[in-house]
Design a protein that fits this description.
The protein is α+β, with helices and mostly antiparallel strands. The chain has ten helices and eleven strands. A hairpin with a 6-residue loop joins strand 9 and strand 10.
Length: 287
């Protein structure tokens, strides 16, 4: 972006923007292109972002759970946290097929596969069109959910993306009741994704874990098994997270207010009983 564009977007005087950018450029947090005058992120900013993301990485067992999930489902496995109006990727394990295709053929056989910059740690997902985002929203308190969606735009990404506020609220109720989210052709016409919540020791949601892949994949024929695998990964990481000490950054990003007055997941049978703070009792057995 140019100085003028940044000034308009930030709603600050151009002179102030010039001063700030000159300081950031001197410290190598931004780089100004000589021919276009446009500014891009510098290496120091990338290093700073990397340090922050490294701080919120989950315990090693969570990474192992992602590898098992990717291996078992054949889909990419993703761990995401709610931050502002999007979900940030904090860990990701590519599918076995993708790794094999890239090694042998130099590209994925999946017609649609996100570019490299969309597959890196720190990549963003929408709250309304991704399974990770819907799970992150579904377990918020009614007050916080209302605040999150107050100015949020339900942008139409595909012909099947939910853009009606009432329909979306109904969908979130469904997610709460089932304990997982599934989106089919909501984010991209070739994509199916499934996600489940990760809870901390205080029974509050900490993150979402999910898988994504082509809806034409043979694995989709065993949809029940895919859902069960994702939910089990969520329970497994929840058990580990409940026992692991959190860093200061984790406590800041992953410590929302109390979501549920009561929540129990025995971590073995898949039975979950949740009493939302707004008083509705939900019970689920199996998937």
């Amino acid at each position: 972006m140019t100085n003028a564009e940044l000034s308009r977007q930030l709603e600050i005087p151009k002179s102030t923007c010039t001063y700030i950018l000159s300081r950031l450029e001197r410290e190598e947090y931004v780089v100004r292109h000589k021919t276009t005058g446009r500014y891009t992120i510098g290496l120091n900013a990338l290093a700073l972002a990397h340090d922050a993301l490294r701080e919120i990485r989950f315990p090693a067992v969570a990474e192992a759970a992602l590898y098992r999930l990717a291996e078992k489902t054949g889909f990419v496995a993703i761990l995401g946290v709610l931050e502002g109006d999007r979900v940030l990727t904090v860990d990701r394990v590519e599918s076995p097929d993708f790794r094999r295709d890239v090694t042998e053929k130099g590209r994925s056989r999946w017609p649609y596969y996100p570019p490299r910059e969309s597959r890196s740690i720190g990549a963003e997902y929408s709250l309304h069109a991704s399974a990770l985002g819907r799970v992150a929203l579904a377990f918020l308190s009614p007050e916080e959910l209302s605040e999150k969606l107050q100015d949020y735009q339900l942008t139409k990404l595909t012909p099947k993306t939910i853009v009606s506020k009432s329909d979306f609220m109904t969908e979130l109720e469904w997610v709460r009741g089932r304990g997982y989210s599934i989106t089919d052709q909501q984010y991209h016409m070739d994509t199916l994704s499934i996600a489940a919540p990760i809870f901390g020791a205080d029974r509050n949601i900490r993150a979402s874990v999910g898988v994504a892949g082509s809806r034409l994949s043979p694995a989709v024929r065993e949809l029940t098994g895919l859902i069960a695998s994702v939910k089990e990964a969520g329970r497994e990481i929840s058990r580990v997270l409940a026992q692991a000490p959190a860093s200061e950054t984790q406590r800041r990003l992953l410590s929302p207010p109390a979501r549920y007055s009561s929540l129990r997941d025995d971590g073995m049978s898949g039975e979950m009983i949740a009493l939302p703070s707004h008083g509705r009792l939900r019970r689920e057995q199996g998937i």
